[in-house]
Amino acid sequence: MLDEKRVRLMTQMASYEETDGRKMIPVTTWFRSDYVGFNMVKSALSITIVYVLVVGTYIFCNVEKYIADFYKTDFMSLLRRFLSIYAVVTIAYLLVAFLLYTYRYNKARKSVRTYQRALSLLLTMYHMNE
Amino acid sequence: MARDTLRNFYSRYEIFIFPVIKFLLALITYLTINSRIGYMESLTSPVLSIMAALINAVLPPGLIIVFSALFIVLHIYRLSLVCAALTLMLFIILFLAFFRFAPKNAITVVLMPLSFVMHVPFLVPMCTGLVGNPLSSLSVSCGVVVYYFLKFIVDNESVIRNPGDATIAEQVTSIIGSIARNKNILLFIIAFSVIIILVWLIRRLPVPHNWTIAILAGGLVGLMAVLIGAIAMDLEVSVFSMIFNTILAIALGFVLQFFLFSVDFTRTEYVQFEDEEYYYYVRAVPKISVSVSERRVKRVSKASKVSRTP
Q1: Which residue does chain B place closest to A14, by CA atoms?
Q2: Which of A100, B35, B147, B233 could bridge across to B113 with cysteines, CB 3.0–4.6 Å?
Q3: pLDDT in tens, B203-247
Q4: Range of the domain at A76
């Protein structure tokens, strides 16, 4: 015998799984620190590639100047400058990433909580039928 | 009445509406790219654009950006290898640094240059402010950079094609320097970000007519930001064009408001699940309320057999 109330609840849950839940449910399978940390590692990797591309282009454009002034150029101070800019840019970028991914995790938890409540209700319905 | 018609139309043809919109957007994008920077003749065939747009119609909208980037890089490769490499690098930087934060809004990177080409650049920030979030300003800013980068290539086509004695390093320095010195980029990034954030902030306020206030404030403040910025940066901006743009953006904002509040975008859903006893194949159809004016009551009595519509 079909339980109309149960079918309705299952339909709502399946609909959530197909729409918002598709992105939200996987997020909540992580611990907050793991999720934020993993995404920050990805962000650090992205910004490093971007920085290497930018610095690479800068060096490529000025390579003739550096070759001409090879003995006059203080390469150590140049390297220090590149590294300090990299540190500042990366820290700023990671701060934004930290805030964003923490917000996204909290939002996902909030969204999935309703789904989990529906799941418990569904289990109760099954137990009552038994 | 119009709302109900719209709602009925949407619920009836919702399966086709989104693919058709994606197809049209992709087609317009590819045709615009081909007409503006169609340096590689084999890519300019309309059949190819239609085929690519048809593929986009059934795939996620983000792929329009991938296809567009591919078209752009190939066209520019025909013009200059150095320029193509720089374009590819620009796309990689934008993708790695910004798109990953706002992948949902990535489509605005395509819409922004398109709206510039159509001389209606205010429309995109207004719409993204109404339907998006502050992160949309990242995608819109990327769109502004892409537009001005491509504009520079189109404007300096002959110099790029025949660089003379300039070395590759000199060419790269010249292109990057020209883009970095272009104050229009900064002006529009600031103005559009102001519009998006302001519209988003006001439309979320718990006050009556918040959407109307957001649209009007966004349009007017955006106009002021462009005009003040242009004076401060000593840039030439057509005041009439900007006023026209603002009016158009405000009008579109109201159209968008009408659509968003009139049509229930909850789609008919087909879901499948199972329990120990059954397999369920459910079609969930959103309820549609019919307005009073459409309800026809026919009264038949012995005294007068007249039908009337209240």
Answers
A1: B271
A2: B147
A3: 888 888 888 899 999 999 999 999 999 999 888 888 888 898 889
A4: 4-129
